[in-house]
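A quick word before the example. In earlier lectures we treated sequence and structure as two separate objects. From today on, think of them as two lines of the same record. Here is mannose-1-phosphate guanylyltransferase written that way.
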Amino acid sequence: MTNVILCGGSGTRLFPLSRTFMPKQFVSFFNGESLFELTLKRNFALCDKALVVCNAEQYFLALDKIEQIKAHKLPTNISYLLEPIAKNTAPAITLACLDLPLDEIVLVTPSDHLIKNMDSYGEALQKAKELAGNGSLVTFGITPKSPHTGFGYIQMGEDFNAESFIEKPKLEIAQDFLTKGNYFWNSGLFCFRVEVLLQEMQKYSPDIFNQCKAAYTKVTKDKNLRRIPLEAMEEISSNSIDYALMEKSKCVKVLPCDIGWSDVGSFDTLYEELPKGKDGNVILGNSLPLNSKNNLIISHRDKLIALLGIEDCMVIDTGDVLLVGKRSESQRVKALVEHLGDSEICKTHLTTHRPWGSYTILEDSAGYKIKKIIVKPGKSLSLQKHFHRNEHWIVVSGSASVQVGNEKKLVRPNESTYIKMGEVHRLSNEGKIPVVLIEAQVGEYTGEDDIVRLEDIYGRS
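And the structure line, produced from the sequence above:
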């Protein structure tokens, strides 16, 4: 059985911890582990293969997390399908199935959900495999604990048949569902045979099926990696698997289960899932709450956060953003992100991860920007140039191989080099230890989009 792991969510309700280039599934919330890592470890106990479907920008985040859990003897049978742009779950699942044998049983899971009851989960999955083997599209229905209005519901009829899907009902309707007992939260977990999924997609969403089939013929393949070209992905219609298929198909089964499930969809939910300290406070980082209780306090910096007489609040400090509010208002964080629009602050943290390593913005002011750059051993930045800035590189540790124009040289600790505006250049680490350097950018514009890549070993444009 193959676990198809969907990594497309952006987790906007957990901003500023979750951002476009570091979504919530890759943030280490749980004893130093991320939801993505927990998903891999949980499902490799039940599946023998994994296919990770993610945005091309997040591929290297996934690789980094997998590298971190090799000590747990995680199987290496992992493949990747990279989407240049997101088109929702129906295309993602269809494209994944086009890459798998027709008789393969597939478990589709989000990468950003939490499941705590492994015994019940294992039992549910065995039943799901049985139903899937008999030609059903199985969706896992979570036994509701409360009349939650933020979840979708599925009505179960006789013989586990899905009767209807209801999206985020009003409170009085959710209360009625809870009383009736045959309505379940829609978990976004699915199990089916590949052939059945493709047949049903062709029948009920032929446009998406044909678009995905056409796109898959243009996929570039390299061992365990599949890349979908941008122009092919742009031709695919965006839709969720629920709207495109599950609400239409006649072979959908609902499998009720109580598996300790949470979508970790808000700071209030995150608070409930994390261990509490004195006075009910959750503290991640350096904090001193006095006469304060039931707060979620997160700081990824050494800065002390002191609270006096504060209750039921969230205080989230990421260095470049400070979010303070009532935990009961945490669902409205998404509206805050929408208000910020396409701002760069919604896309990345002060530290941004790249396939070659990472960079941290130390200072960003009009006319200049200062970064700390870390390049992993054996890695290399793209061959590139800039139109609006000059760059000064000062090596702190390691030895950097630097190409500027046609000249190549080795820059050692406490040595520097200078790249003029418009010059073609590249930085590589051919050594055995990370290269750490300080980069000072000077120019009228220092945005990250002022990069013209001429050559890139990671397939970026």
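Notice the following. The longest helix spans residues 118-133. We will return to this example when we discuss secondary structure assignment.
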